[in-house]
Amino acid sequence: MTATGHPLPHDAPPGCPAHRGAVRLAGLEYQQSPSQLYRALRREHGAVAPVLLEGGIPAWLVLGYSELTYVTNHDELFARDSRRWNQWERIPEDWPLLPFVGYQPSVLFTEGDEHRRRAGVITEALEGVDQFELAHNCRLIADELIARFAGSGSAELMAGYAHALPMRAVVQMCGMPAAGTDTHRLVDDLRISLDAAEGDDPVAAYARVADRLRRLVEEKRAAPGPDVTSRMLAHPAGLTEEEIVQDLISVIAAAQQPTGNWIGNTLRLLLTDERFAVNVSGGRLSVGEALNEVLWLDTPTQNFIGRWAVGDVQLGGRQIWAGDCLVLGLAAGNSDPQIWPEGHVGSENAAHLSFSNGEHRCPYPAPLLADIMARTAVETLLDRLPDLVLGVDPQELTWRPSIWMRGLDALPVHFTPVVG
């Protein structure tokens, strides 16, 4: 039936959303400027566009802000359990997007009371994080990372700072050592599983992540500490060890890669936009505004897969069939001209969709903890290196070739060397 309760005609085959004009979301020239893709799709198809995932698998990309909020607020129509998908018979075992959509006993795929139980455990475990201690630890990590390149007068900030800081902070928060070969291997596998480059095996990487976190859960059951993993194990909801492993993957993945790109995208904005240059040099006046503007204009999580239609329904003038996959176009929704009618996307409010929306949005207080990590990383860097400037022409910066995540390949900078 339609979203308003009217019955649908059954004159089209279920499981076939790839109408004429469907655009492939892989190998796109738009990857360096995805906003062009979203504008083109919106002009051609409206708020809901037919797309093709890796391997020509059909899906719907939800582009409209109001349509996205409708989908995410109506779990009874658009649910998270991917086993509903009407395309599974076409999905190979080595499909690159399998880590995103292959059903796991994770909070990400639960629904109803079970989702509230699992999300409640994560929320309470994260609420146990001392925010002042987290900020302090982030400053210590930032100081250590900056000290590695401060004397050279130049650095590449994405690998050496923007991704490294939240990586160390979040694994420390979960009870792992903040540094070391084991930790770096875990984070590299997380990157591969979330945003694989050519030649990477995201399915194998995801399996290695799960194995390492199983060992962490075993270690914390034997010797609990003041960390997220131990609090999840001690929670009266009584999650199994496998449930905790899967939910830890969600927590770490959601915190590390997106936060690293949030830091990098914010530093890029501060270093290239003259609106911020005067105020930011040596100070902090505009850091909060820059962080928020990035969530509107260059949100790290561009698209999220997804939701699956529980039954036949209409959305944005499109007929969606039971089992169809919907990709949440968070970046497209943030720049929807329906909410910015004059074409100006501002940073004056926080009603963006960068942490998603509805019951399955990023659970509180995760966005606040991510903000602490990102804000501390940016402010500490600007304090320690107040004359930081971009090391290349802004047009030379390139984005990772991903339709899912928005982050720079590299962010080279120059500054006056600091000795000692």
Describe the structure.
Belongs to the cytochrome P450 family. This is Cytochrome P450. It comes from Streptomyces chilikensis. The protein is an alpha+beta fold. Helix content is 46%, strand content 10%. It has one domain (23-414): Cytochrome p450 (Orthogonal Bundle), CATH 1.10.630.10. The protein has helices at 34-45, 65-73, 98-101, 112-127, 131-149, 157-162, 164-173, 181-194, 202-222, 228-234, 241-272, 274-280, 287-297, 330-334, 366-384, and strands spanning 23-24, 48-53, 57-62, 78-79, 154-156, 304-309, 313-315, 318-320, 325-328, 389-390, 412-414. It has a 6-stranded mixed beta sheet.
In angstroms, what separates the terminal alpha carbons?
68 Å
Q: What spatial form do the alpha-carbon principal axes imply? A: globular
Q: Could you name the CATH topology?
A: Cytochrome p450
Major sheet: size, sense and barrel closure?
6 strands, mixed
CATH architecture: Orthogonal Bundle
SSE-based structural type: alpha+beta
Give the DSSP E fraction (strand runs of 2 or more residues).
5-15%
Helical element count?
15
pLDDT < 50 runs, ≥5 residues:
1-15
CATH H-level name... which superfamily? Cytochrome P450
| Order of helix and strand elements from N to C terminus | EHEEHEHHHEHHHHHHHHEEEEHHEE
Instruction: Give me the count of strands.
Output: 11
Level-1 CATH class name: Mainly Alpha
Which strand order does the major sheet show? 1-2-3-9-6-4
